[in-house]
Write a structure and sequence with these properties.
Protein name: DUF4064 domain-containing protein
InterPro entries: DUF4064
Helix content: over 70%
Pfam families: DUF4064
Order of helices and strands: HHHHH
Distance between the termini: 21 Å
Structural class: mainly alpha
Keywords: Membrane, Transmembrane, Transmembrane helix
């Protein structure tokens, strides 16, 4: 099955998410330079967790055609939900793209199944 829409949405969301995570790392560096190490550590840890989530989502989007559609859909929706609540403004776009890609991944390709069935009958 060809899952181009899920691949593109996951890839774009992953790239945007990684770039925004790098922006978060710059904010934590600015916090360290401003003599506020407590807040800078919190920002650095949260940004690192989001960076790992973004890399995982990017890898999953590259493997979309090799994974089960329900597994892919569930994992991408989970990545979107985990990215959304803490950093609403920074990770809003990647989170929405992950949730849409996950929802598309949960659907089954009925058109392809019907076409294969029609070819089998004829």
């Amino acid at each position: 099955m060809n899952r181009t829409a899920e691949f593109v949405l996951g890839l774009v969301g992953g790239i945007i998410g990684i770039l925004l995570s790098l922006v978060g790392f710059f904010f934590s560096i600015a916090g360290f330079l401003a003599d506020d190490p407590g807040a800078a550590w919190v920002v650095a840890i949260i940004t690192f967790v989001f960076f790992i989530i973004q890399i995982g989502a990017l890898i999953m989007s590259c493997l979309v055609n090799r994974m089960d559609n329900k597994l892919y859909g569930g994992l991408m929706i989970t990545c979107g939900v985990l990215s959304f609540p803490i950093s609403i403004f920074l990770m809003f776009v990647p989170s929405v793209l992950y949730i849409i890609a996950g929802a598309l991944g949960l659907r089954s390709n009925m058109e392809m199944n019907n076409k294969a069935f029609e070819e089998k009958i004829m």
